[in-house]
Amino acid sequence: MSTSTTMLILSFLYLLFSALIPSNSGNATCRSYCGNLTIDYPFALHSGCGHPGFRELLYCINDVLMFHISSGSYRVLDIDYAYQALTLHDPHMSTCDNIVLGAKGNGFSVEQWRTPYMNPTADNVFMLIGCSAQSPLFQGFPGKHLPCRNVSGMSCEEYYGCPAWDLLGGHRKVGSMFGSGPPECCAVPFEAIKAINLTRLQCEGYSSAYSLAPLRLDGANGWSYGIRVKYSVQENDEFCRACEATGGTCGYGTDGIRQLCMCGKLNSTSNCDSVKSSSTRTYSVVDSYTLIGSLVCLLAWITKNHYPSPYVMHLII
Question: Which sequence ranges form a coiled-coil region, renumbered to this chain (predicted)?
Answer without folding.
Answer: none
